[in-house]
Design brief:
By secondary structure, this protein is mainly α. The chain folds into 2 domains: 1-89, Serine Threonine Protein Phosphatase 5, Tetratricopeptide repeat, CATH 1.25.40.10; 96-164, Tetratricopeptide repeat domain (Serine Threonine Protein Phosphatase 5, Tetratricopeptide repeat, Alpha Horseshoe), CATH 1.25.40.10. The chain is built from 9 helices and no strands. InterPro entries: TPR-like_helical_dom_sf, TPR_rpt.
Length: 164
């Protein structure tokens, strides 16, 4: 009961904030989506993140959350779509922010879980170029190579990652 009351208070505050500061409406909707996501209400959270990008088509954090939620729901097509929207928003094509690294990481997982191992190899390789000491990315690259049929290469990378 207390949890529902807290969510209700947060929702009322969020709506008041959105009305008082129209420019911050996307951020307010995003924050409400985060509250719902954390409480396990993924379908409801999706609605708020979608509403946030309707308010501001360039609001990258909402796209990232949409990608993550759709991946959790194993809707990899939708997940991939929203992650790709983030890269379209970055006109430079450079990976510079933690958000960009998060997209590489998350999309690498999506490609791996949907069985698109060749695409996963590309992303995990990009991640290792940016972070050569990222042994998790190295391990996932190895698993992706194994999935794509390059067993020896994959096992060597997995062994190297585990031994560091």
């Amino acid at each position: 009961m207390m949890r529902i009351l807290c969510l209700l208070v947060i929702a009322v505050f969020t709506v008041q904030l959105a009305i008082a500061y129209p420019k911050d409406k996307a951020r307010a909707l995003y924050k409400e989506g985060l509250v719902l996501k954390r409480s396990g209400k993924l379908d409801a959270a999706l609605k708020f993140f979608h509403a946030a990008i309707i308010q501001d088509k360039n609001y990258t954090p909402a796209y990232l959350e949409l990608g993550q939620i759709y991946a959790l729901m194993e809707n990899y097509r939708q997940s991939t779509y929203y992650y790709q929207q983030i890269s379209k928003l970055d006109s430079t094509g450079n990976v510079t922010s933690p958000e960009d690294l998060q997209v590489l990481h998350d999309l690498g997982h999506v490609y791996y879980y949907e069985g698109n191992y060749k695409a996963a190899v590309v992303l995990w390789n990009r991640m290792l170029v940016l972070q050569p000491q990222n042994y998790f990315a190295m391990f996932m690259l190895g698993k992706s190579y194994i999935g794509s049929g390059e067993l020896q290469k994959g096992e060597e990378l997995c062994d190297r990652a585990v031994n560091n």
